[in-house]
Design brief:
Radius of gyration: 19 Å
Largest sheet: none
Shape: globular
Low-confidence stretches: none
Order of helices and strands: HHHHHHHHHHHHHH
Number of helices: 14
Strand content: under 5%
Number of strands: 0
Mean pLDDT: 95
Structural class: mainly alpha
Distance between the termini: 49 Å
Length: 236
């Protein structure tokens, strides 16, 4: 059996497994959350995550799964793919194909932030006018702020400048990602919180509706006693 046919058989088996779990009620419900459901099965993410454990690192299968176009297959692909084997061109192609916020967030949180070239992509993505491409850039900031302990204050300051620059983008899935990035940067530690709060307070006073919402929400969370206590105890 050739490697190609083995990959094809694995993908066929995984798609058949997803088809066996098709849930029309859940699939229809995706639309209520702003998720396209015309190529979806309606499978919960925890179920996909459990399945991915048996296939993690099978980069060939992940890439082939992506090309099936099924929503859950693409989420599963992001859970399975090897960040060491993913190329910048492959990541760009996936990002350009994003058509829902959950697919964007899952790929960023499970795969993209782990790549060696993620930092080079953030600026390009946020400068891109396409909704989900721009969202990707800000979700990656949030993911790195949470997971990567090597993020420096200087790096975070650069991201905060991008937060301030693009806070006027009123598209729902962009402004929520901008807000997410701002809050997660601020929760890294006291110095980060001070920088993020300064930005959030400026945005909260803005005449621009989206910037004002982003700023006020971030000020509320970063100033809350719970956030301050968790940060003091090292639990953020």
């Amino acid at each position: 059996m050739t490697a190609g046919s083995e990959t094809e058989r694995a993908v066929a088996a995984l798609v058949a497994w997803m088809e066996s779990l098709r849930d029309e009620g859940r699939r229809e419900g995706l639309a209520r959350f702003g998720i396209r459901n015309d190529r979806a099965f309606g499978i919960p993410v925890p179920v996909l995550r459990q399945k991915a454990r048996d296939w993690r690192g099978r980069h060939d299968v992940a890439l082939a799964l992506w090309h099936t176009g099924w929503h859950e297959a693409r989420i599963l692909a992001g859970m399975m793919a090897d960040p060491r084997q993913l190329t910048p061109q492959q990541m760009d192609a996936w990002v350009e194909a994003f058509d829902s916020w959950d697919l964007c967030d899952q790929c960023c949180g499970n795969l993209f932030w782990r790549t060696s070239f993620v930092r080079e992509a953030i600026g390009r993505y946020v400068a891109d006018g396409r909704e989900y491409v721009r969202r990707t850039g800000f979700v990656l900031m949030a993911a790195l702020a949470v997971h990567d302990r090597t993020v420096t204050a200087d790096e975070a300051a650069g991201w905060l400048r991008l937060v301030a620059r693009y806070a006027d983008d009123d598209r729902n899935f962009v402004k929520k990602a901008v807000n997410w990035a701002l809050r997660q940067i601020g929760k890294r530690g006291p110095d980060f919180r001070e920088m993020a709060l300064n930005v959030a307070e400026r945005l909260a006073a803005s005449d621009v509706r989206s910037a004002r919402w982003i700023g006020r929400d971030a000020v509320r969370e970063l100033s809350s006693p719970r956030t301050v206590a968790r940060m003091r105890d090292g639990r953020v």
